[in-house]
């Protein structure tokens, strides 16, 4: 199980959007995900379709009492989709810090980690949505997490406060007693502005390997999904919001994804409002001197080998398969002399719904 806290004391930098949509993408990839909303604003709860005020119980019940928690996380969790559960928050959580401090309660920063340790149901991922401050609730989240994602808006003042935040996390590491793996996620990227490009370059230069390859672009569909209370994966699998969060999910699972070219991002942004983003010819290359017949199939052609695929064959055993694809995340395999084979030159793969391994390609 991987537990990841999404934090930044700066408001509106994309924490909740990241929690909701990353969870949605991990869940449709077949991973069991629990979202814990520890922000009294309850935006992740809302973003996953639950009305915080209509909930009988929320995370407060789990955290408020020390010895005998009134409830376990599993009793509070609500299934919002296949593979996706959420522990809702509510405004009452805002009163928790005062209550615990007034009571002089012991172990008040360990309550969430204890509750997580007692979870009877196995999850592959726990994603915790933090409030925009570093108080008791964020402390609880960090103690319960092994990894931290810091969304960073790629704006003019992006870097302001990040150094301090990393310092704070370093200090917290001492206090929480375990190492935290911290990564920075550039968000709200608008490729049309010079500021955004400069901010992204500066973030990469300063924080190097700490920065994800994935950049989350500005995309109106993400706002629409939030308003409808669903992850983007449920609304639109062809928009940049989905492509970017799926790319983040794959990067978390496989460590690295190819960086989009800056120009490609800029061009994509300019097309953002166009209904159907342009398709382009994508070339899949397979080399073999043994194969007599190489075909290509994927979710783009309903897994019908070579349907809508143009083939170019060179005498040296190189097969080129050309497909016209719009932005999206696609699964595919080669069909070689009657066998289904994942792409040997592509390290990114996922378990296919019907078993076996599919290769994955991201077109931005
Ligand atoms: N990539 C994006 N493209 C377009 N809109 C976005 C994107 N990311 C976030 N937003 C919008 O920006 C606003 C702030 O995002 P979000 O709520 O995720 O930030 P936050 O860091 O969780 O804020 P808070 O600190 O208040 O919890 C929301 O209205 C959200 O829909
Ligand atoms: Mg938020």
What does this protein structure show overall?
With 364 residues, the chain is of the alpha/beta class. The chain has 2 domains: 2-270, P-loop containing nucleotide triphosphate hydrolases (Rossmann fold), CATH 3.40.50.300; 280-363, Immunoglobulins (Immunoglobulin-like), CATH 2.60.40. The chain has 13 helices and 15 strands. The protein has helices at 15-28, 43-47, 59-63, 73-76, 96-103, 111-117, 136-144, 162-176, 194-207, 220-228, 232-235, 240-254, 262-270, and strands spanning 2-6, 33-37, 78-81, 84-87, 125-129, 147-153, 181-187, 280-287, 294-298, 310-313, 318-325, 328-336, 339-341, 349-351, 357-363. The strands form 3 sheets. It has a 7-stranded mixed sheet with strand order 3-4-2-5-1-6-7, sandwiched between helices. The chain starts with a strand and ends with a strand. Magnesium ion (MG) is lined by residues 15-16, 39, 43, 129.
Provide tags for this entry:
five-stranded antiparallel sheet; binds magnesium ion; Rossmann fold; 364 residues; alpha/beta; Immunoglobulin-like; 13 helices; elongated; binds adenosine-5'-triphosphate; seven-stranded mixed sheet; single chain; 15 strands
Show the helix and strand layout.
Elements: E1 2-6, H1 15-28, E2 33-37, H2 43-47, H3 59-63, H4 73-76, E3 78-81, E4 84-87, H5 96-103, H6 111-117, E5 125-129, H7 136-144, E6 147-153, H8 162-176, E7 181-187, H9 194-207, H10 220-228, H11 232-235, H12 240-254, H13 262-270, E8 280-287, E9 294-298, E10 310-313, E11 318-325, E12 328-336, E13 339-341, E14 349-351, E15 357-363
Parallel strand pairs: 1-5, 1-6, 2-4, 2-5, 6-7
Antiparallel strand pairs: 3-4, 8-11, 9-12, 10-11, 12-13, 12-15, 14-15
The structure holds adenosine-5'-triphosphate and magnesium ion.
Magnesium ion binds next to α1.
């Amino acid at each position: 199980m991987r537990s990841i806290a999404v934090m930044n004391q700066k408001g509106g930098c994309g924490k909740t959007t990241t929690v909701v949509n990353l969870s949605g993408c991990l869940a449709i990839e077949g991973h069991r995900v629990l979202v814990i909303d520890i922000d009294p604003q309850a935006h992740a709860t809302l973003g996953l379709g639950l009305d915080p005020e209509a909930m009988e119980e929320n995370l407060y019940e789990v955290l408020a009492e020390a010895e005998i928690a009134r409830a376990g996380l599993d009793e509070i969790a609500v299934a919002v989709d296949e593979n996706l559960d959420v522990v809702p928050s509510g405004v009452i959580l805002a009163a928790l810090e005062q209550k615990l401090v007034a009571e002089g309660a012991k172990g008040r920063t360990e309550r969430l980690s204890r509750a997580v340790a007692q979870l009877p149901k196995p999850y592959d991922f726990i994603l915790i949505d933090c409030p925009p401050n570093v108080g008791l609730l964020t402390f609880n989240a960090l103690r319960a997490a092994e990894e931290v994602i810091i969304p960073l808006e790629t704006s003019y003042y992006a870097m302001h406060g990040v150094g301090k935040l990393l310092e704070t996390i370093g200090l917290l590491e001492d206090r929480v007693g375990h190492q935290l793996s911290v990564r920075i996620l550039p968000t709200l990227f608008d490729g049309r502005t010079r500021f955004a490009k400069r901010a992204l370059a500066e973030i990469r230069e300063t924080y190097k390997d700490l920065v994800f390859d994935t950049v989350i672009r500005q995309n109106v569909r993400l706002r629409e999904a939030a308003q409808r209370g669903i992850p983007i994966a449920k609304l639109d699998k062809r928009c940049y919001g989905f492509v970017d969060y799926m790319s983040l999910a794959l990067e978390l699972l496989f460590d690295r994804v190819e960086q989009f070219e800056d120009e490609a991002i800029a061009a994509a942004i300019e097309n953002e409002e166009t209904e159907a983003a342009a398709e382009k010819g994508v070339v899949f290359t397979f080399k073999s001197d043994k194969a007599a017949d190489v075909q290509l199939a994927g979710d783009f052609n309903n897994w019908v080998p070579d349907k809508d695929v143009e083939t170019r064959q060179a005498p040296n055993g190189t097969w080129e398969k050309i497909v016209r694809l719009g932005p999206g995340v696609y699964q595919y395999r080669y069909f070689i002399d009657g066998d289904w084979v994942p792409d040997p030159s592509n390290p990114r793969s996922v378990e296919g719904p019907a078993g076996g391994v599919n290769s994955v390609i991201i077109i931005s």
